[in-house]
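Handoff note, outgoing to incoming analyst
You'll be picking up this chain. Sequence as last confirmed:
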Amino acid sequence: MSVSDDDRGVWMPPEDDPRETGEQPVGEKDTIRSYLRHYRTTLEMKCEGLDAEQLARRSVPPSTLSLLGLVRHMAEVERHWFRRVLQGQSAPPMFWTDDDPDGDFDNAVADDAVVADAWERLREEIAVADAYLDGDIDLGAEVTHHGRPVPVRDILVHMVEEYARHAGHADLLRECIDGRTGQ
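Most recent structure output, in case you need it:
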């Protein structure tokens, strides 16, 4: 007896998965971009179809972890690494302050306007990051972070790691909300 996709909690047939383009990345930068796109899309998929209350629902007290918090956090992460560190821009935090260093999670409240703002900001930061990645980048070049030289390659791989780690959190959060697992 085979198990159907519905019985496994899978959202869609694998052939309809927007992360699967059928294209093989060529080269290191293209491979990193492919993984970034995959995990960015995974986070979006984990949030699809949920209302503001569900997106803001906390995991396990006293944690403030929520899907909405993850969206806000990843907007901050994209902004920090791509604008501040890789491009040297002055880009103040969007969701946290010195007085509230966990504002990206603490203030992820069940409000449609907060949800819309979070997605808009994440998409803006991804657009900035993608524009940077469209440029001629030397992956071995170094930028300064906290007074130390860091290769561009390391930062890009770290971005993949950030998304992969938080996609795992999103899996568990989504399962707690409506039982969905997988993909």
